[in-house]
Amino acid sequence: AVGDVHGDVDAFRRVLRLGKVINEKDEWVGGDCVLVQVGDQFDRGDHELEILDLLFKLQDEAPRDGGSVHILLGNHELMNIEADFRYVTDGAYRAFDVLEQVLLNPSDPADGGGSPAASSAPAKSNDRAVEQRIWSLGLDPHQRARARVLMPGGPLARAMADRMRVAVVVNDAVFIHGGILPAHVAAPPKAPPRSGDAALRELNESCYRWMRGEAEKPAVLMGGRSPVWVRDYSRTHPAPDSCKVLRAVLAEIPGTSYMVVGHTPQAEGVNSACDGCIWRVDTGISAAYHGPCEALEIQADGTKRVITPEGYVSGGLREAGMRPVDYM
Questions:
Q1: Backbone angles phi, psi at 161, to 5 degrees
Q2: Do the beta carbons of residue 177 and residue 72 sit within 8 Å?
Q3: Strand, coil or helix: what is 30?
Q4: pLDDT (tens digit, 9 = 90+) per residue, 119-149?
Q5: Exposure check for the chain: N or C terminus, fewer CB within 10 A?
Q6: How far apart are CA 117 and CA 99, in angstroms?
Q7: Residue range 169-221, pLDDT digits in tens
Q8: How far is CA 8 from the centre of its chain?
Q9: Among residues 305, 124, 45, which one has the least CA distance to residue 12?
Q10: Phi, psi of 170 (to 5 degrees)
Q11: CA–CA separation, 286 and 310 (whole Å)
């Protein structure tokens, strides 16, 4: 599992090579490995589209060797879908100008024409309603190409909806950008009871429909307590009540025993808390944070170890507040 990469494709490549899932040509060499990137590809860096290109390419390549790639949506992807561009860099705006031209002129050999992100995205229609929506947002001219491509129903938003999810369960682990609270898995008022895994399916499906422009934004994704914004489990030492809540949530999702999250940079690197019920993998590896280049490896028998440039660290040595004392 790899944490937030925030527009830094070089840092992303470094951590993937460290984990031995890509080679120097960016080709999948991970065999039957399952790679999960927990969101926040966007913002704070220039190379967002290169990150998506790499992820989409690996998502296509990995199954040929029995592997798979899961790409999660973080709060920064959803912010951009809603044209919240507070953290967008100048270089990222320029990249979307090029992408929009590629989408409008698919045969144009301009830079980016071979981009998997571009080829995954249907060409943009010149819909008057789209332009009215752009106008209503009051965006500056340099922001408009990004908004057209990323707004719900926009070409890249649809491609992302097809390939990315809010939450995924792999074996006994739940992967989510921020965290899952009881309210996220509870049935709506007056609705029949539902299982936690059914709630996650509905979470993913409702986000999919919204990003494709087929429905309004789901209520569960609104506000600071949504699954992509929650930080309850990511404090250095979560409150005992938070750990209790976490265990209750896991009990609602059949077959799961722990959660893996990003969203909140961990100064000490990848670590766990709540007696191993939560693993935090956002190490701030991007140039925006200059954090340690690390990833979490979960072996077939459930053993966990942290991949670092110096070697492997036993997961047991990475409880919150502990510093690594030995490498494997």
A1: -60, -40
A2: yes
A3: coil
A4: 666 655 557 777 788 888 889 999 999 999 9
A5: C
A6: 9
A7: 999 999 999 999 999 999 888 888 888 999 999 999 999 999 999 999 999 99
A8: 14
A9: 45
A10: -125, 115
A11: 19
